[in-house]
Design brief:
Layout (H helix, E strand, L loop, with lengths): L1 H20 L27 E9 L2 E4 L7 E5 L2 E5 L4 E9 L2 E9 L10 H14 L2 E5 L2 E5 L5 E7 L11
Antiparallel strand pairs: 1-2, 1-3, 1-9, 3-4, 4-5, 5-6, 7-8, 8-9
């Protein structure tokens, strides 16, 4: 008897879930509803976490290796982040759109996977030390060398927001 009751209960639960999934609703906005557009404040160098999307190599700008994440967070004269395998830390100085980064230190873990991650990490650290200017456009941060050539391009790690609508 217990088996039949359990089967019957599970069948009813399954049917009610299927019925609820098929339900639709036509919602008509109130004629008094208004739409508003909110402009987010412009991103600043400090405080968002930046995720590297591409870096300068001998063959031009290339994407970071798959399965690696390189980050940078600039705050109060300190830059910290992950360089794909190790954590790094250093100082920086700003003068308008000019930036000087360094010295830099890091943890000293060896990572074998993915292939090339340690070379990418070394390149990233060297590029950080050689950048002289920065520019932010939309959600992109570009660090460039003294000739104005992009060396590192980051994307802001944006935070989710909750929007509440009332009718």
């Amino acid at each position: 008897m217990k088996k039949i009751s359990l089967v019957l209960l599970m069948s009813m639960l399954l049917l009610s879930t299927a019925a609820a999934a098929g339900c639709t609703s036509n919602v008509t906005p109130s004629p008094n509803a208004t739409a508003t557009t909110t402009t987010l404040p412009a991103l600043q160098l400090e405080r968002p976490m930046w995720i590297l999307t591409s870096l300068a190599t001998e063959t031009g700008m290339n994407n970071t290796l798959p399965n690696t994440t390189i980050t940078a967070t600039f705050e109060d004269g300190n830059v910290t982040g992950s360089s794909g395998c190790n954590r790094y830390f250093g100082s920086y100085q700003l003068n308008k759109t000019q930036i000087k980064i360094g010295p830099i230190g890091s943890t000293l873990i060896f990572c074998a996977d993915p292939d090339g991650v340690m070379t990418q990490e070394t390149s990233y650290h060297l590029l950080l030390l050689n950048v002289t200017s920065y520019a932010i456009s939309n959600d992109k941060l570009t660090l460039s060398d003294s000739q104005g050539n992009p060396q590192l391009v980051f994307e802001a790690a944006l935070y989710t927001t909750t929007v509440t609508a009332t009718t």
